[in-house]
Design a protein that fits this description.
By secondary structure, this protein is an alpha/beta fold. The chain is 37% helix and 20% strand. A hairpin with a 3-residue loop joins strand 10 and strand 11.
Amino acid sequence: MLVSKETELRRRYDARWRLTGVATRRSGWVADPEGLNPLAILNSRWPALPSQPCRDVREWLEKAHADVLFEASSLDVQTGQPAIEHLKAALELGAHAITANKGPIVHAFRELAALAHEKKKKFLYEATVMDGVPIFSLFPLGLPATVLQGFSGLLNSTTNVVLTEIEKGRSFDEAVKRAQAMGVAETDPAADLDGWDAAVKVATLAIVLMGVPVKLEHVKRTGIRDLSEEKIRSVRAAGMRYKLVCRAERRGDGVVCTVQPELLLASGPLANLEGTSSAIRFDLDVFSFSIVEHNPGVEATAYGLLADFLRAVQA
């Protein structure tokens, strides 16, 4: 995304960038302050590691002379690590911290936000929910002086695909394999099927947009495993559909959060969502509105990170 939009970034925003570090489980910590070749790395042509490679994220950030960190490690639902330590290290070393990982929001939002404020750097996370849709940036800029009373929606692509494929006649296991083949389900799809991914997203939205420090264990969570294939197909034939629905509602000083399969009229807006599409309805104190994202791919998540990059470097 940075490469494809490089000319536009330079011409419209006077934003120039150089890739000075990349880290993966397979390739280790690669850093070069003079710049790495992004096209070579995209084609799996990695530079040779030095005789004394970086030992950890801090040494890597220091060697890379990083101004911005993009954190996109896998989600650990229960701890938010190692993403939290990656983001903390970036902020402490004077870099903006941008993440697509929901774990740090649920487990360390206040700590990371306070650290960013102290260091006069940005901690941004637009890509954590609904990819590149501007949810978190929308509220402070476009909806000033409003109070979010609650929200509801479909926020997990894997369960949407699995339920749709079962309606078409596939078995549960075949539907999961179909979602994996599409690239929306992990090798171990348990976090999606058991509602953990959706629960983390609900908690993330409630923490950031509703200002309530929701713990993951406070989200009432039920996945889709207990729905029988026969029941899924029979209700579809009767004009209804099962969907894994996320909800949050303000109650006094707290928020009630749920993730569970719900039976919806097939003609309804949420029931009509197919494939990897997602949608959310926000209920404000002054009006309500909905956002739908149609069949996003990896580019949508990349755009969320890119938009945060521009917000950070132009601040």
